[in-house]
Amino acid sequence: MDYRAISVPATPTHEFDEDEQWKSVFTALQWIQFLMATLSIIGSSSIIVYAVFQRSVRSPEVRPLFYLSVSDLLLGFCWLVGASLYGKTVKNHNIACYNLQTTGQIFYMSSFFYTANYTWQLYIDLKDKINNVASVHSSLLRRMAIILSSFLPLILMIPVFSFGNANECYQNYSQLHSHRCLLMHDAPPVNISGDLGGFNTDACTGVHFYGLGAFLVTFMITSITILVPLFKVCSVQRRYVQIAGPSDSHQSILISVAERRVVLYPAAFFYCWGPAFILGLVKLFYYNEHGTVYMILYVFQAFTATSQGLLNCLVYGWTQNFYRYLKRGTCHDASTQTPLLRTQKKKYESLQPARHKVDGTTNTLA
């Protein structure tokens, strides 16, 4: 027998290099996700503790933000546990990671709805402040929005829980996708052997694309819901600038703070979930995980998707400091004027043309 004719096929070297490269990327993602999830937990907890100590949880203005922070807090814990489980060998590791990912999707879909609800509440409050009227919107509608934001994501994810666990869709992830506890989106399951118990490739593929589609659809619905009040704010503000005369300084401060919150919270939302949405679209149409594009999107997702609690805390803290700064400036201006000077100032403002009064009001809001 001529052993020289027998040749062992060589494994391409670039496959080993690519595997090592992905392994280093996932290791970096683990630490990024761990750090950002910790910061997000701290940020969400800060808002919750502040609202509790201020006894403002039940107020219509703070309640949507409070529930949004609770959702971000629970999501942050999911991210943190997922990063801790990466690379660990524990009992029922596959089942834990699969259900942890599904639970995390419930929380970030709930965070989507809470963000849309809070943006609309900010817009309604801003409109009421500009019109200088008390809010006439029913508290029942506000509570219904909070209830839907809490239970609708759970209802949407019941098929993923039930069909995924019933068909044991987590079984083949043990070898192919050891990073599943880290990331939002897994690749579709592939049945590489015939002894996987109750594993059903077709059912698990359907469950996978259902979960991915639910994320993409809820993101687009939330984006549209958020953009509508943003465009309305521009028209309302233009009307206010045109008709506004001399107004109460404290009212102008409240309007200015509300304007910034209406813009900044949606901006934080798009920053956090935009990369994850793009990655979901890429996986929907081309789900073979190769190339530099996937690495870049995974890194962006690790930085942004886990940071919503932190960014919401920064936005709330900055606008609160901005409110105190404007209020302190107004009080300082009033304390340095005599009653005669304040009377002269009001009389002077009433004698100015409408354009100057509008400019003065605009400067106050800025």
TrEMBL record:
<feature type="transmembrane region" description="Helical">
    <location>
        <begin position="262"/>
        <end position="287"/>
    </location>
</feature>
<dbReference type="InterPro" id="IPR022596">
    <property type="entry name" value="GPR1/2/3_C"/>
</dbReference>
<dbReference type="GO" id="GO:0005886">
    <property type="term" value="C:plasma membrane"/>
</dbReference>
<dbReference type="InterPro" id="IPR017452">
    <property type="entry name" value="GPCR_Rhodpsn_7TM"/>
</dbReference>
<feature type="transmembrane region" description="Helical">
    <location>
        <begin position="65"/>
        <end position="86"/>
    </location>
</feature>
<feature type="transmembrane region" description="Helical">
    <location>
        <begin position="293"/>
        <end position="318"/>
    </location>
</feature>
<dbReference type="GO" id="GO:0004930">
    <property type="term" value="F:G protein-coupled receptor activity"/>
</dbReference>
<keyword id="KW-0812">Transmembrane</keyword>
<keyword id="KW-1133">Transmembrane helix</keyword>
<dbReference type="GO" id="GO:0007189">
    <property type="term" value="P:adenylate cyclase-activating G protein-coupled receptor signaling pathway"/>
</dbReference>
<feature type="transmembrane region" description="Helical">
    <location>
        <begin position="209"/>
        <end position="231"/>
    </location>
</feature>
<feature type="transmembrane region" description="Helical">
    <location>
        <begin position="31"/>
        <end position="53"/>
    </location>
</feature>
<protein>
    <recommendedName>
        <fullName>G-protein coupled receptors family 1 profile domain-containing protein</fullName>
    </recommendedName>
</protein>
<dbReference type="InterPro" id="IPR022343">
    <property type="entry name" value="GCR1-cAMP_receptor"/>
</dbReference>
<feature type="transmembrane region" description="Helical">
    <location>
        <begin position="145"/>
        <end position="164"/>
    </location>
</feature>
<dbReference type="Pfam" id="PF11970">
    <property type="entry name" value="GPR_Gpa2_C"/>
</dbReference>
<feature type="transmembrane region" description="Helical">
    <location>
        <begin position="106"/>
        <end position="124"/>
    </location>
</feature>
<keyword id="KW-0472">Membrane</keyword>
<feature type="domain" description="G-protein coupled receptors family 1 profile">
    <location>
        <begin position="43"/>
        <end position="316"/>
    </location>
</feature>
